[in-house]
Every structure is written in C-alpha cells, then in structure tokens.
Amino acid sequence: MPNSEVITHDVIIVGAGLAGSWAAMATAQQGVKDVGVLSKIHPLRSHSGAAQGGIAAALNNVRPVPGTGPRGPLEQIPVGDELVDSTELHMFDTIKGSDWLGDQNAIEIMVNDAIDVIYEYEHMGCVFSRTPDGRIAQRRFGGHSAPRANYAADRTGHVLLHTIHEQALYHGVKFYAEWYVMDLIVEDNAVRGVVAIDVLTGKIHLLRAKAVMFGTGGYGRAFKITSNAYANTGDGVAIAYDAGVPLMDMEFVQFHPTGLYQHGILMSEACRGEGGYLINKNGERFMEKYAPDKMELAPRDLVSRSEQTEIDEGRGVMDDGQGIFLDMRHLGREKILERLPQVRDIAIDFVHVDPIDDPVPIQPTAHYSMGGIPTDVHGQVIADASGTPVVGFYAAGEAACVSVHGANRLGTNSLLEASVFGRRAGYAIAEFIKGGAKLLPVTGDPAERSRQAVKELLDNPGTELVEDIAQELKANMTMNCGIFRDEERLNIALDKVHELQQRFKNARVMDKGSRFNTDLLATLEAKHLLTFSEVIVKGALNRTESRGAHSRTDHPKRDDEDWLKHTIAHKGEDGRPQFSYKDVTLYWDRFPPQERKY
Amino acid sequence: MSNNNAQRTVTVRIQRFNPDTDKKPYMQDYQVEMKPGMTVLDALHEIKTHQDGTVTYRRSCRHAICGSCAMHINGRNTLACNTPLKNEVTHKNTVTIGPLPYLPVIKDMVVDRTTFWEEYLRVKPWLIPPDDIPEKEFRMSQDEVKALHDAETCIMCGACYSSCAVIGLNKKYIGPHALLKSFMRVLDPRDSSPAERLEEVSGADGVYRCHTIFNCIDACPKGLNPTQAIETLRKLAQKRQKLEEARRERQKHLNEPIPA
Q1: Core-most of A332, A405, A495, B260, by most CB within 10 Å?
Q2: pLDDT of residue B7
Q3: Which residues of A are catalytic?
Q4: Best residue of B118, B127, B141 to probe chain A, by most A CBs closer than 10 Å
C-alpha cells in the first residue's frame, strides 16, 4: 500500500527547541547540509521559548556592591577589578545542586562551553539585557553562589529560541513543521530513521537517515499541576524506550517553587532572583527555617519541599490553604516593569493580581525532567550501563540525560544544557556523517506498522475518553509520586498506572478523519504518558533514599553507599521496565560527596 | 474568594470547516459550564476532550508566549489562552470563535500561515553581523536594547497579520509581523546591512503599502505597535545611505565599553 513516499536525509532531527535547532544549525554549519527537522508544532512554538529567567555562564560581568554582603545590590564589575565568579564555582554549584548525582565530566564540559555559547548567541543577534557599559546583564538565581544568570528581561528563552531558529534557516536547514514522529527505527543497535505523520494530511511516512537526533523535550505533562506546555508529553522519551533504548534517572522530576496557584504556569525564579519573598499565611518568610543562608534562593527541590511542608502543616494561603504568597511589592514598580514584565502580565491575566500592588498566590509545579535518554558528552545515545553506543542516534536537552543535572537541576542550567549539548551533538553528527556513515537498510515496512496502529486506534469502538484517562494519571502522579513520596503511595501510584494502561485499550478517538487530527495526536501522547510514568514510579519505588528532587519520607537520608548511581530502565520482554544501574562519574579528589546544606 | 464567579452554562459558538467533508463553513454551538478563572482556551479544551474531538485548533504553552492559539474571538483577533472566558460572554450568554481572517482554513481554527512565514523569511530575520567578531560580546547600550524591546517581544502569532486590511487585499504585502522583525534588525547596531534591508522593505510590497489603519495595534496580544515601526522604517528608508554610514561608524566601537 504505497500511499506515501519515503523521505531521505543525511540527518533527521526531531524537535525544534533549543537542543534540536542548535544541533541542526551546528550540523549544517559544519558542512553537512542535508538536515531535516521534524517538529509536532511550528519551531517557534517550542517550549524552550517559555523559559524566562536566564542562561547560566560565569561571564563575570556583575558583582554585589562591595560591602553589601552576598545578597546586596548588583553592579557591573569595573575593568581590572577582582572577579567574583569562575567555571570552577559554577561547576561546584551544579554538582551540589545535583546532590552529587550529576556526572562531573559532563558538568565540567557544560560550564566551560557555557561562556562560548553565550557569546555565540550574542554574536548571532540575541538581544540580551545590558549593564551600563554594554556587557550582558546578569542576575542571581537559586543555588548559584554568584550572579551568573545572563538574561533578556524575563523572556530569555524566547529570544534565544528565535535567534537559533533564524540561524538554522540561514544555514538552509529544512523544517517539517507539524510532523509528529510515531516511531524510531533501530535495528542491530543502529538507527535507521523514523516514522512520522504529516499532521496536515494525516499521511504516515518513513523517513530514512544516517543519523537521528532527539531534542523532543521533557515529560512534565504527566503531572496535574505543571508549568509545562500542552506539548510536553515526553514523546521522544517514550518512543525511544519502546524502540529498546534505555531511559535514565526518570524518577527525578523537578517541582518548581513558583507555579501560579491552581494553574501551575511559571512565575520565573527571577522573581526571587531580583529579591522577591516567599510568605506563609502568618506573614513569615519561612525559608529562614529551611535555608537560613540562601533563603528564597536555595535550590528548587529544597524550596518546593519547604513550601509543601508549610502547606501540609496548615500555613498555606488561599481558601484551600494550598497556596503560598510570592511577594514582590518591595521591588517597586520600576524594577518589575523593566525586569519582570512578562511575569507581571501572567499574574494579571491568570490570577488577576498585579505584583506591583499585591502578593501573588503560587504553589509548587511540575517543571523539569532530569531524567531522559542517556547520552555521552557528545550527545551519543548509549544502549546500556557500560556505554555501548546506539549507532547514529543522538539526543540532547530535556529529552536527554547526560547527566549534568543529576537529582536536581539549578535554574538557568536548562537553557544552557540544551544549547551546549545541542551544539555538541550537532558537531558530533557532522563528524559521523563526514566519516562515511551509511544509510542503513530497513527491514519490512515500519510505516505500514504505524498505519495499522493508527487504524486500530481509530477503529476502536472504545468507551473511555482519552482525557479522563490522562487526567486520572496526572492526578495520581501529583498525589502519589510528587514532591514527597513513600512506599505506600508509590505502590498505589504503580497500581493506578497499570490500571490506566489497561483502560487505555478501551480508549475512543472521537475524530476519525485524516486531516489535522489533533484528537489522534492527543491519544498517542496519552499513551506515551502512560508508558514513561510506569518507569518514573517504578524507579522511585526502587530508590530507597532521598536525593535532590526525589524525596522519600520513609527513607529521608541520602544513601551514597547504595544509591550513588544512575537508574537505567529498559523495556523488558513482558513490556515492564527492567532496571540496571550505572556509576556516577565523580572527581573524588576535587568534588567528593558532601552533606548538602544551604 | 467571593461567589460572584458562580458556575453557569455558556454557549460557545464555533465556526466549523473541514475542506474534506464540508462545502462551506458553518456555525456549531456547544454548552460549557463556566468555571472560575476559565479562559477561552480552557473552554475549547473542555469541548474538544469531552464533547467533540473533531473541534480543531492549535495550542501549546497556554500563557501567551508560544503564539499558537491566535484566533478570532467575538470579532477580534487575540490569543485564546490568556483571554478570560467571562470577559467574552455577551448579553446573549454566547462566545463566538472562528479562525483568523484572510487566511486559508485548514480545519476549524487552524489556518494556513504559509504566506505569513514566507514574508518572515523574505526580510531575512537573522542578524547580518560585521566581519569583525569580538572575543566577548558586542557592546550595546541599554537604550539601544530598549529600542528593540517591542520587536523582540513579538511571538509571531499572526494576529496582526490577519487583521491587516492590506493583507486582506494583497498577500504580496510583507505584513506587520515581518516589518517589525525587519525594524528590529535595521535598528540593531550589530547589523551590517541596514540600507539593503531598507531597500527590500521600501519596495512595492513594503512599508508604503501600509495604510496606517492601526488594526495591527488593536490586534496585538502583546500590546506592540507595528504601525509605529513601519513609520520609522519609512522615515529611515528616505535616508538609508546616511544610516548606513552612521552604522559603519557605530560598528567601529562595538568592542568598546559604552561611555558613562
């Protein structure tokens, strides 16, 4: 049934956020011009654009005014004066933030590449905010011991995304906007291509390539309250897993401390970076109790747990006591309008509060996926704990797990990671192609298999609404696999996921047509949520310790003896995850594990 | 919280059209229970996921930064995601939603933005940097950055483009979105080709086509002013050689601190 053509490129990249677009641009820049980028939404709609506060790099452009202490006002560093920041310090902060689960070789590369990648953005036309003498402006961020968040007001991701997309266009990258990838073709541990739906026509195509790269983003949509876009359904993660590629550290999900109350929409950490307070119903800056040194600028896992503790102990705000106040009034109108204009609009639009006049109700929100497809420092995907490469398959950004964030990511390190490792993947792919990579044959007709799968979904006379299954899953994940976890709740969570996987077989797709069928896409996305949620929950159940964002109330201590290792999950013969573990790369002489206090 | 947001049922009237099955667009009514804080996008989501999965629209971020969900709501272009439903309910208890005007409809609220993106490409949205790239950043003053503020805030949602009466008549017009992008590059001290850019946008399909009807300003969900940018481009186009010379002069100092 040849009702669609086979498309061939040297390189196929899936996802057009920062990681995917950097990889595409860098590959083309290196002279490998036949690059196709598939994205289920237009590239400029990618969720990288929603990042607000900044991108980390130790540029040493600003410092606290001397004599005002570490929380004092910032000024540009006069030429020739002593520097306050270093890559070494950025590295240490990231390692400590990761609760020592980050691989230190990868972190070292990231903090070193950071400086160059920021300047490259600037040279490509990115419009950063500036210091009075014209350098890139920097602000403070949680867990960073120097002001190193380079920013463009509070729309940093937006300007970075537009800049890199423009550059990819300039370099002749071909974009397939609104193409939804359904399947990754791997045979004999070597990648062959992907199968994708052209959303406009509904036709399903085989796309063959010598190399495939996934920059498909995170999986925060598995949770009820989330800052993530509708699109962040972890498709790439689930597709890779189904194709036999392992997933790493999936149990580590970051809850951001300041999601808008009941909406989960992000209020940038820059609100606190610029000096905002967190207040409970008694008007107390409760972070004094939990992180007396860093206060509101402790790392996100710690701040979110502190908020949740305040809420659980009855000191939350709003009618249901499930909120906390983010108070920015003392920053003043001028600073809010200049530095946080988008954040202000969001608060006004969605909770009808102007941060200039009133505190904004917020709550912790599922935000970032530390886990993902395991790669080496060149974006090369690995097939097992010993690092065997999946030939021709690359990943970067939130979909990947290098791992630089370990058990908890620091703010502003995500835009950085996506950029640095997207670029590195691009360079590695170009080298791979130039080194004589071949277009490998494909057995059978994978596109036909996907067509059959879609037909079965559409023909299913099922009675369950996909949305009801998805909503139940999200409520379950937030309730039973959220900020605080324990064995009992995780077992409930796992049973629920299994139940919903069964019920999904009875799911009904309402739209039976081929043209722009977003009902079908939502069904495929829900299937993906169910696939990787099982890996999250099972991984969390196995890990009987508390580390970073994974907090077990029944195992409250970090356990380096047994658990200083990455979780690796393969899909087993029975369809259930099979676990193995991989050593963390540590520089024992430089950054040995320490107690983590802020 | 007070009880003035008590739930009530509202009629959401949606313009439906699937070119595969429908001869022409028609209106279809859905009933939605209005919950406190509900946006127009929330209402559409409720309809799509619980009543009629064939209702089709684009959406992603749900907080006015991705630009996916621009549509025609009660007679004006805006984003569905940050528009409160209760503000849009008329005295007849109805909200009317359709696709952005002047663009071919793919399905329901999903429009074909091909010409929109073609014009974006046409103005070469990327920076054309000087030959001399410094080791660190180019120095820009805070005022130079401020001048680009509006243009870089643009999310390319198309609300302005499809409210523009000139676009309605002539798809060859570059359009407010792309002219705003061009404005951003022309004014950027790091860009080396302002004269060439001005030549492109002052041709037959460019800035002089704008009739200053201001529809784009009313439509912009980010509160931007493309008309003003277009007027600035017009003025600069008159003296583009002078601007080019000034730019070359400015670029001699791009590697130096901005004087206090």
Answers
A1: A405
A2: 66
A3: 300
A4: B127
Contacts of residue A474 in chain B, CB cutoff 8 Å? none
Cβ contacts from A onto B, under 8 A: 170
The DSSP line for A221-239 is GGSSSBSS-TT-S-HHHHH
Contact between chains at B20 and A515 (C-beta distance less than 8 A):
yes
Annotate A481-518 with DSSP letters as a single string: SSSEE-HHHHHHHHHHHHHHHHHHTTEE-S---STT-H
- Which CATH number among 3.40.50.300, 3.10.20.30, 3.30.390.50, 3.40.50.720 corresponds to the domain B8-111? 3.10.20.30
Segment A550-579 shows an average pLDDT of 98
Question: Minimal CA–CA distance to A402: which of A201, A134, A111?
Answer: A111
Give yes or no for A132 touching B (CB within 8 A): yes
Chain A: closest CA distance from residue B140 (Å): 5
Chain A contact probe: residue of B57, B63, B68 with most A CBs at under 10 A: B63
Average pLDDT, chain A: 97
Which CATH number, 1.10.1060.10, 1.10.150.20, 3.10.320.10, 3.40.50.720, labels domain B114-251? 1.10.1060.10
Tell how strand A174-177 and strand A35-39 pair up: parallel
Sorted by where each begins, the domain ranges of chain B are: 8-111, 114-251
pLDDT digits over A20-60, tens only? 999 999 999 999 999 999 999 999 999 999 999 999 999 99
- The pLDDT score that the predictor gives to residue B1 is 38
List, for residues B139-178, the tens digit of each pLDDT value. 999 999 999 999 999 999 999 999 999 999 999 999 999 9
State mean pLDDT over A539-560: 98
Chain A window 353-382: which residues touch B at a Cβ cutoff of 8 Å? none
**Selected residues 264-283 of chain A with any CB under 8 Å from a CB in chain B:** 265-266
- By Cβ distance, the residue of A45, A136, A515 closest to B68 is A45
Alpha helix positions (H), A98-198: 104-123, 156-170
The yes/no answer to whether this complex scores an ipTM above 0.95 is yes
- For residues A375, A376, A378, A381, the Cα torsion angle rounded to the nearest 10 degrees is -30
Do B138 and A44 count as a contact with CB atoms less than 8 A apart?
A: no
What SS3 state is found at A277? strand
At A565 the three-state DSSP class reads strand
Residues of A in contact with B125 (CB under 8 A): 162, 166, 169
User: Which pLDDT value is given to residue B3?
Assistant: 43
Amino acid present at A85: D
Which of A122, A129, A350 has the CB atom closest to B138's CB atom?
A122
The whole-number pLDDT of residue A2 equals 44
Q: How far apart, in whole angstroms, are the C-alpha atoms of residue A496 and residue A504?
A: 12
Q: Please tell me the predicted confidence (pLDDT) of residue A71.
A: 85
Best to test chain A binding among B55, B56, B60 (most A CBs inside 10 Å): B60
pLDDT at A109: 98
